[in-house]
């Protein structure tokens, strides 16, 4: 009898190892505190810079709820909260505003053609409806590198007008690109993982 089998018998463990657990679905956003995403943002006909930094990460209801401090283009300091899990990405709040209902940015597993809607129960700057649809996985090249990302097309109805955008989400990173038709709105310039 081999020594390993003898040791296992002595300690009362089975001779056959248990099967390895299946890999968990990847998370589609960086969740480590300190992770930093720097974007080039089209704003007012110019290109500006925006930085999103993960400043907190708490586990709640099976998701990692991250707090992202956003600095740069729009408001000097703004904190967004996003729930990150194997089921996707859900925007919980921005600044003092809590989304009601929460805003599903990405649903997983992502299958081409999957669609969902969100109708805010409170006023959100004239927004009456969000309609999201998964296009599929695509290769995306941005200044930060090349990513295999899930594309989600979003139609937002604001004061009766439809606005269209496409968002690409990469596993372990988050949003890497956002466009409005052929015009870029945001692209990931650099990504630094947290610790």
Low-confidence stretches: 1-22
Shape: globular
Average pLDDT value? 85
Strand order of the largest sheet: 6-5-4-3-2-1-12-11-10-9-8-7
The CATH topology corresponds to YmcC-like fold
Count up the domains.
1
Q: Kindly, what is the distance between the CA atoms of the first and last residues, rounded to a whole number of angstroms?
A: 45 Å
By oligomeric state, this entry counts as single chain
Write down the CATH class: Mainly Beta
Give the helix proportion (percent range). under 10%
Strand content: over 45%
Estimated radius of gyration = 21 Å
Find the structural class using helix and strand composition.
Answer: mainly beta
Output the helix-strand order. HEEEEEEEEEEEE
């Amino acid at each position: 009898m081999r020594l390993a089998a003898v040791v296992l018998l002595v300690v009362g463990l089975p001779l056959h190892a248990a099967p390895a657990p299946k890999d968990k679905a990847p998370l589609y956003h960086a969740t480590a505190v300190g992770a930093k995403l720097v974007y080039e943002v089209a704003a007012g006909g110019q290109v500006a810079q925006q930085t999103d930094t993960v400043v907190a990460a708490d586990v709640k209801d099976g998701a990692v709820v991250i707090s992202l401090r956003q600095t740069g283009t729009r408001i000097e300091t703004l904190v967004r909260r996003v729930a990150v899990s194997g089921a996707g990405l859900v925007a919980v709040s921005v600044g003092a505003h809590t989304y009601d209902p929460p805003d599903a940015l990405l649903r997983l597993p992502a299958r081409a053609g999957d669609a969902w809607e969100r109708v805010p129960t409170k006023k959100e700057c004239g927004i009456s409806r969000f309609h999201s649809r998964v296009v599929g996985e695509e290769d995306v090249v941005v200044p930060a590198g090349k990513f295999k990302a899930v594309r989600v097309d979003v139609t937002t109805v604001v004061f009766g007008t439809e606005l269209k955008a496409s968002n690409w989400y990469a596993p372990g990173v988050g949003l890497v690109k956002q466009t409005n038709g052929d015009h870029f709105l945001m692209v990931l310039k650099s990504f630094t993982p947290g610790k």
